[in-house]
Amino acid sequence: MPIKRLVVFRFHRDPLVCRTRVDLIRRLNPGVPVHGLFGGPGGARGAAFRLAGRRALGLDALYVSRHSGPWNWKNGDLVLLDWYRETGHRLSFDVLHFIEWDLLLTEPLERAYAGVPTGAVGLTVPTPLSVIGDDWRWIAGQDEAREWRELLAFARTRYGYGCDDGYDPVPHGCLGDGPCFPRAFLDDYAAADPPALGNDELRYPLFAQLLGYQVVDTGFRRAWHCPADDPYFNAFGDRNIERATIAAELAKPHGRRAFHPVRTPLRGLHSFPVRRSAGGG
After folding, report:
1. 11, 40 in Cβ contact below 8 A?
2. 120-161 pLDDT, tens digit each
């Protein structure tokens, strides 16, 4: 049977960019539901965005986080779990793709995630913290380092992480761009009720370990420390990917098909040779 996929599209700004991105997801993946998750600001601007969001962006449904914008940015996994507990658990799907508004995927999900088995957690460049280095912002600052220690203490107390004789766990970080999750993982992750310590890029690989799920790299970026990848998939999101770069890659039979961050609408993307799925699986 074909895999039933579902997209949760996470956004907080730039409705025009979001609309074109949702349109492309639908064009490449006919029949795949796209549910919105808004984690933007409060106030009048945020309220207007929320009211118009579902209709304006062409979403099947829209969930609005009850937390502040900065909290949502840091804790995307916890916002996703709020959505799952309140709404998502009632939906029929096998694999959920959590796609940020500025992640551009130019091929069908089944092809973009072809290397991730159905029962595995797909993460982008899961990398040992010893390789990432002590200067990574989520473990480098005083408050961040304290939260990471507290998160590891939670893992030891609840799950015995690192307490077994002969078992030396290797903590990882990852990039939070474009993860995918089997439904069973979301069930188990919601039941685990992870604390808001660290951030999602630390918790994803940690809880996949704790809950016994295989982690597989999405392949969107070749390695954490790979400057040659920055023009295509920027680890820190501080360089918008150029339209000419995207067009050149799409013109290659085996060029890149995932780009981040892309914060412009790219209205003419339909003229690029994007590869469409034959069905909704």
Report:
1. yes
2. 999 999 999 999 999 999 999 999 999 999 999 999 999 998
3-class DSSP state of 51: helix
Residue 198: name the closest of 221, 224, 174 by CA. 174
pTM exceeding the 0.85 threshold for the entire prediction: yes
Tell me how many degrees the CA angle 218-219-223 measures, rounded to the nearest 5.
120
Contact 257/105 with Cβ under 8 angstroms? yes
* Residue environment code for 72-85, b if the CB has 16+ CB neighbours within 10 A, otherwise e: bbbbbbbbbbbbbe
β pairing state of 95-100 and 5-11: parallel
- Average the pLDDT over each of 45-59, 86-100, 157-171, 250-264 and give the range with the smallest value: 45-59
Question: Do residues 106 and 272 touch, judged by C-beta distance below 8 A?
Answer: yes
| Bond preceding residue 195 cis, omega within 30 of 0 | no
pLDDT digits (tens, 9 = 90+) for 178-231: 999 999 999 999 999 999 999 999 999 999 999 999 999 999 999 999 999 999
Give the length of the chain. Answer: 281
Residue 67, class by beta-carbon neighbours within 10 Å (0-12 exposed, 13-18 middle, 19+ buried)?
middle
Radius of gyration of the chain (CA): 18
DSSP H or E segment with residue 113 = none
